Give the backbone structure.
Amino acid sequence: MLRFALLAGLLVAAPSRAASQDSAAKLLDTARVWKVELKLSAENWQAMQPKGGGPPGFGPGGPVRPQPGGGPPRPQGFKFTYEFPYVRGAASFEADTLADLGIRFKGNGTYMVSAGGIKRPFRLDFNRYTDGGQYRGLKALSLSNNAMDASRIREAAAYDVFRAAGVPAPRTTFVELALHVPGRFDHQTLGLYTAVEPIDKTFLKRHFKNAKGLLLKPENLRNGLEYLGEEWKPYAEMYGAKSEPTEAEKRRLIAFAKLINRSDDAAFQKEIGNYLDIDNFLRFLATTAFLAHYDSFIGFGHNYLMYLNPETHKFHFLPWDLDHAFGGFFPFGQPAQLATASILHPHGGENKLIDRVLAVPRFKSAYLDLFKKLNGSAFETERLTKVLKACEAAVKEPVAREEQATKERAGPRQPGGFGPPGGFGPPGFGRPMSPAEFVVERNKSIAAQLAGKSEGTVPRPFGFGQPGGGFGPPMAFKQPDPAKCVAICIKCAAECDACAKLCKEAGDAAGAKACRDCARACTLFADLCSEKSPRAFDACRLCEQLCQDCAAICAKSETEECKECAKLCRACAAACIASRR
């Protein structure tokens, strides 16, 4: 029987920093699974639903609205960057009851692909409604739902690799999560989550002794760190400052970006070490390259943080959101392809910071020496195999219970589409490679590269040839032409949304999911294309793949609605292809 204690009681005797760290370390055990239940009132459950963003159907006022100036219509209320409000709730965490904590959803892609179900990602804030609130020394905890990782263990194991490589990185553990909302969910099993320590002031104090520096979370910087001029406003938007920076911090970031993008080689070599912690950057880059993690700094220009250490005035790179590690990010290729990625040109496209750092002979030599050392320690096959096997053993039974609960809610899952057990990626990608298999092949390729027997391959997003990416020189992006496909994408999204409801009523869970995924992709593309976003190309390719998948499923139905959906989906896929020519 569970032993209950009020959170307030846990906080009365304020533990020492050492005791808190020890308690947090025991909680954040990579290969352990904790049983946790979130408890919310029906009113708060409703209040925490996303505001102003989400898949088709979110947002008032109809499905689309005209754009100012007569541009193509834009989906009403659709945002990929969701707005998640916090609400008050409680949680039972094994033997502890945590009262009056903040709970909200989190995520972008992981939320989008799971928004139609109840296993969505969460963030818990122990300090939101309780002054000085904490749990085992932590002020918050992120619960990732592994929606795009069939193995369920990529994120936990990847953070282990970063920590072993000497990069400040969050600790993790696993959580088997349940949800109780009176009248809605009766102690409902959601399934296995990865609990991740947030990168916050508590984290910064532990690693840097001083948490008063500038923490940044850049987004959409596809060519590395970009120089955006001498005014602060564009940096605030693109570099994602987590607090209001001082004037000195603003100037430091701007000067750093200018050095990378505008200085000559002599000035760069002389000054870069004054702005960048070179050892940290080389470790961060080597580990990201080893993991072939392209939903990151070396790929789509996000899912990392930068910290301006107030003691040294140098920038440090920190990893975040690693569920596509071990070659698991399909837009850049299949894991078997990514296992051969170059270590000297690991980035998919231009990245001036990487290119310029590795062009300096002493830095290149230090990077290769570091790779050799890490191949015998953090990256070593035997060590990582043990970590992966421990994680696999820990999650086996909770995953089985999750799959049983999913079947009881909506019938047996069918292969294909997003998420476990199929994983993230369009159909037709062949048998997935497990993280353990990837490690073996990756180390073979790296050994050959370090011995001078191979140069590795340079990845590129959505290359030509095999599905899911290709390899070759960095490629230029041709933005889709909105006039060719925005209208049909909006029409296709509406048809898919209606078809999903028909499939759900008919008990066809696989068909309903395929249609919902397709509708989200079409609406996302229409929104990004209307905004002339640099992400429109990526959304267009994803939209094409999902429309083909949806058409294949709907074509098997005997209903006229599904046949019409299949017809529109095929037309939408064709429009996606034509728009990029």
